[in-house]
Design goal:
It contains five helices and 18 strands. It is of the alpha+beta class and about 350 residues long. The strands form four sheets. The chain has a seven-stranded antiparallel beta sheet. The chain has a four-stranded antiparallel beta sheet with strand order 2-3-4-9, with no helix packed on it. It has a four-stranded antiparallel beta sheet with strand order 5-6-7-8, with no helix packed on it. Strand 7 and strand 8 form a beta hairpin. The longest helix is centred in the C-terminal third of the chain and has 25 residues. It is globular and about 80 Å long. The two termini are about 40 Å apart. The chain binds FE2/S2 (inorganic) cluster and fe (ii) ion (FE2). The site of FE2/S2 (inorganic) cluster (FES) has 9 residues, from loops.
C-alpha cells in the first residue's frame, strides 16, 4: 500500500538512539510470546519461566521462521515453531533437537531491555553501542522518596501508528505558547529551568489551569518539572496542583509512524482511602489524558518546520532542545540543527 502524496515524513531520522517503550509489562506474562514491529524491524518479546523478559529480532537464524507466530517458551529459552531450534535470552542457539550440538556461530540480535514503571523499554542504537544513559523513572528520578504506593493505579493511553516523530512530543515541553491555545490555560506559562547540558535534560515551568486571564504569572503557585531521557521517554511531576505524575513515550514503528503511550498517576491523600476519592482520581487522570490527546491531534497532522519561524521569546528554548536532540541521531539526520552543530565542530 503506497503512502498518500504530501505525507509529512519528518526530516528527522526515525532511527534515533535511546530507550523506547515497546509494551507494558503486564501485556507479556510468563510464557507469552509477543510479535511487534519497531524501528522498521520485526521483533519478538517473550517472558521466560523465571520472569526474565527478552526482546530480540523476530526471525529464526535457521530458515527464517518468525518466532512471534507460533514460537513457544520452554523454561528459559524460546523454541522456534518450524524445526524446534531453541534460542537463549542472549540470542544463542542452545539446541537443535535432531543434532548432538547446537549451532554456536549464529546469533539472533537481542536488545538491552529494562522494565520500569510497569513499562518495557528497549535500548535502540543503529551503531550497536551499549546504553550510555539510564531511562528516567517517574518516581526515583525526582529523588523525593516517592513511589507507586503513594499513587493510585496507572492510567493509560495508547495510540498506534500515528504520523509523528518523537521529537515533536519533546518540543512540546519548551513550547510555552501552545498551552493557552491547545490546553486552554488561562495564562501563558513561564519556564524557570531549561537544562540541556546533558543526555538527560530538565525543563521546569510555572503553570496553572485555574482562574482567569486577569491573574499574573508571578502569583501562580503551581508548576511542572519534566525530565527527558533522550527522545523516547519523558516523565513529569506536578507541584501546587492535584498531585500527578506522567510518562510520555513515543517509539518509531517505521519511517513514517510512531506509537504513542501516555501514563498518568494521581497522588493518594494519606488517610483518604474511600472509593469516592479513587473515582475522583480516575476522573482527574482521564482529564490529563484528554489534555494530552489535544496535543496528539496536533502532532499527528503536523509538518515538522525546519528552520521554524520562531518568535523572539521562543528562540532560546527551541534552539536549545533542537541542538540537544541532535546527539540522538547517529546517522546525522537531525535536520538543520545537526548540520549547524557539525559545522560548528569542524
Ligand atoms: S526456521 Fe527456526 S528452527 Fe528452522
Ligand atoms: Fe501540550
Amino acid at each position: 500500500m503506497g503512502r498518500a502524496a504530501g505525507m509529512a515524513k519528518p526530516p528527522l531520522s526515525m532511527k534515533p538512539t535511546g530507550w523506547f517503550q515497546v509494551a507494558w509489562s503486564d501485556e507479556i506474562g510468563v510464557g507469552c510470546v509477543h510479535p511487534m514491529k519497531y524501528f522498521g524491524e520485526e521483533l519478538v518479546a517473550w517472558r521466560a519461566e523465571s520472569g526474565q523478559l527478552t526482546v530480540m529480532n523476530a526471525y529464526c537464524e535457521h530458515l527464517g521462521a518468525h518466532l512471534g507466530f507460533g514460537g513457544t517458551v520452554v523454561g528459559e529459552v524460546l523454541q522456534c515453531p518450524f524445526h524446534g531450534w531453541q534460542w537463549s535470552q542472549q540470542g544463542r542457539n542452545v539446541c537443535i533437537p535432531y543434532e548432538n550440538r547446537p549451532n554456536r556461530g549464529r546469533r539472533i540480535k537481542t536488545y538491552p531491555v529494562i522494565e520500569r514503571n510497569e513499562s518495557i523499554y528497549i535500548w535502540h542504537d543503529i551503531e550497536g553501542r551499549e546504553p550510555f544513559f539510564d531511562a528516567p523513572d517517574v518516581f526515583a528520578s525526582f529523588e523525593d522518596g516517592s513511589g507507586p504506593d503513594d499513587y493510585y493505579p496507572q492510567q493509560r493511553l495508547f495510540e498506534h501508528g500515528l504520523e509523528l516523530h518523537p521529537q515533536y512530543v519533546l518540543e512540546n515541553g519548551v513550547d510555552f505558547a501552545h498551552f493557552k491555545y491547545v490546553h486552554n490555560t488561562p495564562i501563558v506559562p513561564v519556564f524557570t529551568r531549561h537544562d540541556f547540558d546533558d543526555v538527560v535534560s530538565y525543563v521546569d515551568f510555572t503553570i496553572t489551569f485555574e482562574g482567569d486571564d486577569g491573574q499574573s504569572i508571578e502569583d501562580v503557585n503551581s508548576g511542572v518539572q519534566a525530565i527527558n531521557g533522550g527522545l523516547g521517554i519523558a516523565v513529569t511531576k506536578s507541584w501546587g496542583m492535584v498531585d500527578n505524575r506522567t510518562i510520555s513515550a513515543v517509539t518509531p514503528v517505521d519511517e513514517f509512524t510512531s506509537d504513542v503511550r501516555f501514563m498518568v498517576y494521581i497522588g493518594r491523600t494519606p488517610g483518604e482511602d474511600s472509593e469516592k476519592a479513587e473515582a475522583k482520581a480516575r476522573t482527574f487522570g482521564q482529564e490529563i489524558i484528554r489534555q494530552f490527546t489535544q496535543d496528539v491531534s496536533i502532532w499527528a497532522h503536523q509538518r515538522y518546520s525546519d528552520p521554524p519561524a520562531l518568535a523572539g521569546s521562543e528562540q532560546q528554548g527551541f534552539t536549545a532542545i533542537r541542538k540537544w536532540a541532535t546527539q540522538f541521531y547517529p546517522d546525522g539526520k537531525g535536520g538543520s540543527a545537526a548540520a549547524l552543530a557539525a559545522a560548528a565542530q569542524s
